[in-house]
Amino acid sequence: MSGGWCAGGLLLLSVSLTACGDDAYITRIQEEGKLVVVTRNAPTTYYVGRDGDTGFEYELISAFAEELGVELELVMSDNPGNILGLVAEGEADIAAAGLTRTKQRQDRVLFSDSYQDVTQQVVCHRRGARPSGPEDLVGLSIEVPAETSYVEQLNRLQEETPELAWEVHPEHNTEFLLEKVWKRKLDCTVGDSNIVAVNQRYMPELSVRFELSDPQPLAWAMPANADGLQDAVNDWLDQYEEEGQLQALINQYYGFIEVFDYVDTRAFRRKVERVLPQYQKLFQEAGKQYGIDWTLLAAQAYQESHWNRHARSPTGVRGIMMLTQITAKEVGIQSRLDPKQSIMGGAKYLANLRGRLPEAITEPDRTWIALAAYNVGMGHIYDARKLARNQGKNPNLWHDFRDVLPLLSQKKYYEDLRYGYARGSEPVRYVRRIRNYHDMLLQALKVE
């Protein structure tokens, strides 16, 4: 990276905005006290998690806004063309939306230095099509989101392989099409490597067949007249990278991918025999204290961590019950890696969630919906209840509720909901797998 704004970086912002460069844009932002940022409501950019706003792009742009000393105002858009349009027209100061910096896009807006490289990957189902190059895509059903760099790359490849064909979707994003491949309703799609890596954690049957492009830079987009802002961003990115904070953020979200929820019956039975006895009394104690079947708590813990007391995820949740720092503080535990504290904390949190649900929800639906809240957050549960009513379904019955949750990942549904995008299929799979593990555990223990 290289910056050409002010020697010494953004620390000079608070001292003198007139010392160097074209600072009119920065001055206006600081006078208004806000930075308007357009982003995508998606797992690699911005979403509402268990403990509030999160996402790689969100954390990165929040750090920049904090350095400027201004509030962050987010604008949501899923279509890259619309995102770039908002920036080009000056309706947003920055697009922090996981955009690749391409020559075609640089004709419209300014871009920052790159903060991460990605490659475009062709993704198919593990038991489906096995293309090894562009020519093998001929005859397959392929869909990609509209106005993306994927379309640009496919257009270039079509010059060499005229028979290559695909369908473009103006409404569907990469995450939606990956899920469509996972459900075997589509042969293949294209996704940036960071998006694919995150989604493979939840849909392990997705398989990368080959790289469609060379590495491409992700960067923030800014209006064409925002040279001073561009220089300020580049100087700040230099500083952020030199301090090791950029790499730490990348490691948090993409540093390692572990799939905790891939069902392996034989592995589960081995762990029932070899690992569960270490923690069985703790599950029994927690179950008794919080009124939860201990075998269900054990099944949930297996889904969360495979009963690994040292388990951790890229987003920072830890321990047997995979608690966030905020949740651990809420339930009053000091060490998430201590098995007793983690199990007690997880049981207390689940009991709290169950207690927050409307009285009209009876068992066992109450427990299934509480488990879904443990996974996706109570805010999205409230959104799904509203959506269920709008769809003419009963929000108090799990079999109706589970049909609605996946709709939270579709723009036409989530854009009017308070908490926005959620990977709604994940809590459905989460509850289903806990119930499967629970059944297998009861069978293994011969518990009636």
Query: What is the helix fraction of residues, given as a range?
Result: 40-55%
CATH architecture of the largest domain: Orthogonal Bundle
As residue ranges, the low-confidence spans are 1-21, 256-263
How many individual β-strands?
Answer: 13
CATH topology title of the largest domain: Lysozyme
Give the overall shape: globular
Return the structural class. Answer: alpha/beta
Mean pLDDT: 89
Amino-to-carboxy terminus distance: 63 Å
Main beta-sheet annotation: 6 strands, mixed
Oligomer state of the chains in this structure: single chain
Strand fraction band? 5-15%
CATH classification class of the largest domain: Mainly Alpha
Please, how many domains? 3
Tally of helical segments: 19
- Rg computed from alpha carbons, rounded to a whole number of angstroms: 24 Å
Structure summarized in a few sentences:
This protein has helices at 24-32, 56-68, 80-88, 103-106, 149-160, 174-182, 193-200, 227-242, 245-254, 265-274, 276-290, 294-305, 325-331, 339-356, 365-376, 378-390, 398-404, 411-414, 425-445; strands at 34-39, 47-49, 52-54, 71-76, 94-100, 110-111, 116-118, 120-125, 142-145, 167-169, 188-192, 206-211, 216-222.
Can you describe this structure?
This protein folds into 3 domains: 9-112 and 218-254, D-Maltodextrin-Binding Protein, domain 2 (3-Layer(aba) Sandwich), CATH 3.40.190; 120-213, Periplasmic binding protein-like II (D-Maltodextrin-Binding Protein, domain 2); 265-445, Lysozyme. It contains 19 helices and 13 strands. It has helices at residues 24-32, 56-68, 80-88, 103-106, 149-160, 174-182, 193-200, 227-242, 245-254, 265-274, 276-290, 294-305, 325-331, 339-356, 365-376, 378-390, 398-404, 411-414, 425-445; strands at residues 34-39, 47-49, 52-54, 71-76, 94-100, 110-111, 116-118, 120-125, 142-145, 167-169, 188-192, 206-211, 216-222. The strands form 3 sheets. Strands 1, 4, 5, 6, 7 and 13 form a 6-stranded mixed sheet that branches. The protein has a 5-stranded mixed sheet with strand order 10-9-11-8-12, with helices on one face. The protein is globular, with a radius of gyration of 24 Å. The termini are far apart.
